[in-house]
Write a structure and sequence with these properties.
Chain lengths: 443, 443
Amino acid sequence: MHSQVADLIETLIHDEHSAESINKAISELTPDDVALALESIPLAQRKQAWANIKQANRLDILVEMRGESRQLLLRELDDAEIEELFTDVDAEDLLEITDSLPDRLVDLALNQMDNKQREYYQQGIVYDDDVVGRWIDHELLIASQSIRVSEALRLLKKSTPSYTDMVYLVNRTGRWVGCVKFDVLFKAQGHEPISNLIDEECSFINSETELTKAAEMLERSSLSALPVLDDNHILLGRFHAGLAMETWRLEHEAQQMATAGLNEESDLFAPVKRSAATRGIWLGINLLTAFLASAFIGIFEATLQQVVALAVLMPVVASMGGIAGSQTLTLIVRGLALGQITRSNLKSLLSKELKVGGLNGILWSIVIGVVTLWWFESPMLGLVIGLAIIVNILMAALSGVLIPVLLDKLRIDPALSGSVILTTVTDIAGFVAFLGLGTLLLL
Amino acid sequence: MHSQVADLIETLIHDEHSAESINKAISELTPDDVALALESIPLAQRKQAWANIKQANRLDILVEMRGESRQLLLRELDDAEIEELFTDVDAEDLLEITDSLPDRLVDLALNQMDNKQREYYQQGIVYDDDVVGRWIDHELLIASQSIRVSEALRLLKKSTPSYTDMVYLVNRTGRWVGCVKFDVLFKAQGHEPISNLIDEECSFINSETELTKAAEMLERSSLSALPVLDDNHILLGRFHAGLAMETWRLEHEAQQMATAGLNEESDLFAPVKRSAATRGIWLGINLLTAFLASAFIGIFEATLQQVVALAVLMPVVASMGGIAGSQTLTLIVRGLALGQITRSNLKSLLSKELKVGGLNGILWSIVIGVVTLWWFESPMLGLVIGLAIIVNILMAALSGVLIPVLLDKLRIDPALSGSVILTTVTDIAGFVAFLGLGTLLLL
């Protein structure tokens, strides 16, 4: 799989490729592979390759692209080209790309849609893009609660969509009544009313549910799909295993990118100015925290001038606090995400983390103290750094528990902002403890 | 869902709970919810709660626990209790918990298994635990290639396992021949030979495939499950959507924990000594890199003594390099994971990252230079830090591209070790540039 994509990347970058050779390569790949290859080449070549791709394949590829890549490409197209692209767009595709389009083009696409698709689009667009309601699958097996088994089987013969292992039953007003699993249906007699076969344990998902929560519910159900209902129990469609797998895959990518303050939609070859701008914001936030730490060091300028070894060892104190703190933070952030942390176990947890911190603090303060003693031949300096390490690791354990819990209470995602705040706290606590003790004991 | 778990946690921590009240609460929850609640309370209470849980529910709960939590619990049980626990264990459960068991107990469990399950266990255990072969699902619809449609439909009536949307066909020796989708089967005539209906596009997964790769393949197929074959095309079983969803969910958790050098199996209330030991290793590795940075600062002791402001500003230089580097690193690590980065686009990528770094370097060096000028009233110091920032951000861009690519070539996972190596490089480069320029221009 990957090597075919690599081949296509190679072709698109190097060769004086013809439209024919590209379209031949594309015909053997899925649209998401082609999208990936396009995202892997510089913008100039990407534009050229796009011009050579057959109109019929373009929309599918565009839909599979990451947000920023798609925006960059759409920027290069004129309205006539975009209009042509959208002659055949359905609700699901338009919902996927709508955030990268100006309103004018969304309207243009909507005007070309049939009524059913337009209705689906308008149902979906009212939901945020991390919510099930936005990504509902509308291909489903649906039957009136008043039919018999034989009629349900006939329905099944007509068409069985992917990820289907049950028939959903509704009443006359479209309200969900329940579901009948295939294996029950297959065993039943043809004349039996289907409403006798309803699965009492069948669950459903509310359309306002977050995607990751919905994926967890689907996994627990051991079913290939669950019905999605609105607040009035009207059956809107399904959330199926394909959507759940996609949810987790993208969540995984988003989490990885977020650790560096990046968005998962980022393009590998975004224009320099644009990349510099998005990354600059994160650099600026971190610069503020670094200057804050510097300001605290500045308080001790006089001490540093007399004992320059303190300056040399500052990174050691900061590093130990930062690492110990992020270990505690990570454990707590996971616990919060899993719903493990409640008022009742917070105290035991804090006490356990402080004990772990104390033990590692003592152990590493001895190691660091001895290395310092040997390096600078000053027992007093060894004592100062040893004490500072213990203080900083304990402070790290305390902040590692309290910062995420506090952020969570304030409804701020601790996975995103926790680590910047924590590092700032441990940096400052470490420098103040180290340089403060140095001032007291070494001058 | 979460609030029920929270209630159970509360009950288990506070109340003088009776066996009856626990088992009542448990009967309303799934085994993984109970496992989660047990993992959320201190070890003493956990042991007590376990003693009150009915024997019939224990194995399911144990299987759902995270590795470390399971180990901690098993350590408390004597052999008779464990033997009782394992009277009813199947291959899948034993494969899940086998790594937390001593060999003696694995043998004990195997002795109580029936032949079929023991065979499945022995088939699975030869694979690593991140490989499909280990987690194969053995409940599947399988038919001889020589039967007719009507016979296949009868098979379906007998039992339809979860996540099933096709029948797998094998020849007499158990080799995979192909698959027939339900929607084709339902439309066919009863007397038609099933081998006429084989889906030409049906793909399969080799048993050596990594779990995340398998999940991607399954997602692309739009099927609920794919057949898993060994190298000789013998049909071993299935990889289904439930396994794929679990794979991603656990991968997501593992990635989060790995950022702090932790394992996803870590217990929230692991004993203090044990936690301290595992975390201590990561602290030690980072300590080495911090001392390395200190050693480089030490070279410039004489300079620091004369210009103490350099010491005050060191965190700013280190922070900017570290953040800029990790942004590039993250983008490249994702690109490598997606298969986007090849020999052919590496040069364009490096040049683009250097341009982004150059732009941000110039911008932020001006900001930082001006702040420094204003703070320390020294234009020369402003110049020194400005130049150091540019050098360090360019160095960060260079290392951010080259370190992960190099690690990948050496078959070391850049997602794990990349960030430690990168920070060490940017720290040292930053300090040397800053203090070196300071020595040249300020003394």
